[in-house]
Amino acid sequence: MTVGIVGRGRMGRGLAEAVRQAGLHPLLVPGRADPRRVADLLDRAALVVLAVPFPAAVEFLRGPAGRRGRGRTLVDPTNPVFCEPPVVPPGRSGGELLAELAADRASGPDHPGEGWRVAKAFNTVPAGVLARCRVNGLPVSLPVAADHPAALRDVFALARALGFAPLDAGGIRTARHLEALTGLLMAVSDRQGLRGQVSIHIGVPSGDRTVWEPACRAG
Description:
- It comes from Micromonospora chersina.
- The chain has helices at 10-21, 35-42, 54-62, 94-106, 149-162, 175-192; strands at 2-6, 25-29, 47-50, 73-76, 117-120, 134-135, 138-139, 141-146, 165-170.
- By secondary structure, the chain is an alpha/beta fold.
- The chain has a single domain, classed as Rossmann fold, CATH 3.40.50.
- The chain is globular, with a radius of gyration of 17 Å.
- The chain starts with a strand and ends in a 27-residue tail after the last helix.
């Protein structure tokens, strides 16, 4: 799998290194490059992660790349809850807004079926935690919100390859809760002096359900 990663900040670089260590192929492109060049590069990716601030993610979808999804999965790890001034209306989420924008860009007779399937994921994992897959001996959980089963399947495959434990959090509407959760985690981090080194494990009771146990990467 070739994983396209837009953005060369801490999140983008950290994710690219984790993808490389997992034996996948990262395609790291700068978020501020020429929009057409970005679109051309990302045509080679099976899945794309927008590791950029929320306003840049909006511009990505409004640009040429917004019409070139071809039904592929677009992962939104943004956290607009930290944007000042606020960029998302109360009661909504950045994930929902990006999914709606992707749908709008895909509509029309000139480009049917060319949209992106947006999934909210990785926003609860700080850049400094990407190289880890356990917290206190337990697998780091990765909640995923998506309306499309194919997008959910794609993100689960990537998360498992990186050593995380993905969990179906529901449709893209749930993105508002995932973004609020990140705000809580960062508040705890600040209060406890953790410097962003915080992650979560969501326990799933065993029994009739099959509980997936992730295999950590070497090192």
